[in-house]
Amino acid sequence: MTAELARDPRPIFAQALDQAGKQVAAVSPDELSNRTPCADYDVRALLGHVVSVLHKLARVGTGGDARDVPDVIDGIADDGWASAFTRARSEVERVWADDERLDRMVELPWATLPGRHALEAYTHEFTAHSWDLAHATRRLAELDPDLAAQALEAFSTFAPPEERSEQGPFSPVVPVPDDADMYTRLAAYLGRQP
């Protein structure tokens, strides 16, 4: 088994969830209607999406279909997002604690791949959405630049600009200065307006 294949994605996934969890917990009810850099989401909808992704990961980890979970969970009380995130995270960590799940193929809405690669992909999604939440609530100073550097490297591989379309999840790359911080570079690469 190669070192690449054998790498356990769960520690870095946990770091991304720690960061996302802090952003979720910091959101106050009066910020729920703030616009986010995600075109279709205000803060409430983005929180619903983040919680949904955790439910999807738990579902595919047990062999279920992620498409059975809506893209945005709603019906959460204004002050209940942190506990909803924590409960969903606990379930994901319970499901993915089994090492055998890392090499089992999982079917996601956008690909079928080994579990370890699914966790890596969602590590980067949580990193990007942490920036989205921090940007919408003006908490940018609280983000880990190492997570952004890893996400930017990964997105450069599996979401190259030349393969994007108007129907895809990423808009064209937005130009930023060469000395932009890592999260600004990541957001711009994903087509957000930093």
Automatic annotation (TrEMBL):
Residues 159-178 are annotated as: Disordered. InterPro entries: CHP03086, DinB/YfiT-like, Maleyloyr_isom, MDMPI_metal-binding. It holds the Pfam family MDMPI_N. Residues 14-134 form the Mycothiol-dependent maleylpyruvate isomerase metal-binding domain. One of its GO terms (molecular function) is metal ion binding. This is Uncharacterized protein (TIGR03086 family). It comes from Streptomyces zagrosensis. It comes from the Bacteria.
